[in-house]
Every structure is written in C-alpha cells, then in structure tokens.
Amino acid sequence: MPSPDEQRLLDLLHLGPVSNAKARRSLNWDDEHFEIVKADLVAQKLIIIGRGRGGTIRLAPKTK
User: Fold this and answer.
1) Which of 5, 36, 59, 62 is the residue whose CA sits 20 to 30 A from 24?
2) 3-state class of 33 per DSSP?
3) Is 9 within 8 Å of 48 (Cβ atoms)?
4) How far is CA 44 from the centre of its chain?
5) Where are the beta strands (DSSP E) in 1-64?
6) C-alpha distance from residue 30 to each of 12, 21, 62, 63 (Å)
7) What is this structure's pTM?
8) Is the Cβ–Cβ distance between 12 and 56 less than 8 Å?
9) Which parts of the chain have pLDDT scores under 70?
C-alpha cells in the first residue's frame, strides 16, 4: 500500500507521463525527497522510468 506521498505522485501520474522536474515542481518537493519516493515506487513496480530530457516517469501497466 503506497504511503501518502507515494499516492500523491501516483495521482499526478494518472494524468500521463511527466518529467521529473515537472513532478517535483507540481508536488513542491525537494530533489532528495522526490528521488526517495520515486525509488520506492519503482521498487514496488508501480511506476516506470522513461527517457526524456531530465528523465520522465509514468505509471506501470497493470498486471493481472
């Protein structure tokens, strides 16, 4: 079960892929906090890191 901060990032990603910089700004988080939350969600296989200038993230496809 995602933590409250993890859920905030997941909610943002329901709108579609987003750059790391835009996600950090939208959530008003510092770099360190954002990277910790992002790493936790990647480890849980809930988000996927993508390409793009500065990096992007998106929701992982749902598995059955």
Assistant:
1) 62
2) helix
3) no
4) 11
5) 18-19, 47-50, 56-59
6) 16, 10, 29, 31
7) 0.91
8) no
9) 63-64
